[in-house]
Design a protein that fits this description.
globular; mainly alpha; 2 strands; 10 helices; two-stranded antiparallel sheet; PpoB2-like; DUF2182 domain-containing protein; transmembrane
């Protein structure tokens, strides 16, 4: 019995070594991707800050992210924005996504999957494709609004007040049952709605669903980022921290409400400042 037990233990140890090595490769690759995307985002923000923004009625500046620069065509400007958006979202979402992908790898590894790591890559690709689609929708809306603001001084003067109102309302959204449900979907364990399938198509669809759930859950915080400044590093850091905490903290719903209270206070402060400057 002792010899049999020893043999079984050795076989289990041999199975654990590749799994541990694969886990370290996964974590190392994720860390490298985060560092590269964060560095690229910081450099891009510094470049945009150096260009400044267009002074607008009401004492604020319109970000160059919504305008063409250096003789760009509109398709070129859209491609530049989309690339910037994809890199930025990679840096912002990876801290909360990596633990989810790790749980997915562990869950699908308990099935008959031969390459759970590659399936996790497909999940991540589907996830970020959904966020890239959001950027593709945001750019034309942002440029259209920027064009209207440049042509309508009265509307431009109301922007600081409107930004405060959006931040306040999105803070209130954090207290709703809808937000709690969306957050629960994002925090759910992989395969909670049914058995995980160890197939590329299933992994891709899982990534798309995960991305859609994340977009809905982060809608309020994303709106806050857009109205405060899509290329504002402080806003990005704050939103990243908020998303990560409400996803990973033990009491996620309570954290979400705390974030909502902070956003409501910030929105009220912005409204007061806008009223005072007006």
């Amino acid at each position: 019995m002792g010899a049999v037990g020893t043999t079984a233990e050795r076989q289990g140890a041999r199975r654990m070594v590749p799994a541990c090595a694969s886990d370290w490769i996964f974590l190392g690759t994720s860390a490298w991707l985060f560092a590269a995307s964060a560095t690229a985002t910081v450099l891009r923000c510094a470049s945009m800050s150096a260009m400044g923004g267009m002074p607008m009625p009401g004492g604020w500046r319109l970000s160059m992210a919504w305008m063409r620069t250096g003789g760009q065509t509109w398709p070129g400007a859209a491609a530049t924005f989309l690339g910037m958006w994809a890199v930025m979202m990679t840096a912002m979402m990876l801290p909360s996504l990596v633990p989810m992908l790790r749980r997915y790898r562990e869950a699908v590894g308990r099935t008959d999957a031969r390459h759970p790591g590659w399936l996790a890559v497909l999940v991540g690709a589907g996830y970020f494709l959904m966020w890239t689609a959001v950027g593709a929708a945001v750019f034309p809306l942002g440029t259209a609004l920027a064009t209207i603001e440049m042509r309508q001084p009265a509307l431009a003067r109301a922007v600081p007040f409107a930004a405060g109102a959006v931040v306040l309302l999105m803070g209130a959204l954090q207290f709703t049952a809808w937000k709690a449900h969306r957050l629960a979907c994002c925090r759910a364990a992989p395969g909670h709605g049914g058995r995980l399938r160890a197939a590329a198509g299933a992994a891709w669809r899982h990534g798309l669903r995960l991305g859609l759930d994340c977009i809905c859950c982060c809608a309020g915080l994303t709106a806050i980022l857009l109205v405060i400044g899509v290329m504002d590093l402080r806003a990005m850091a704050g939103v990243t921290a908020a998303i990560t905490l409400e996803r990973l903290a033990p009491a996620g719903e309570r954290v979400a409400r705390t974030i909502g209270a902070v956003a409501i206070a910030a929105g009220l402060l912005l409204i007061v400042r806008a009223a005072g400057s007006g």
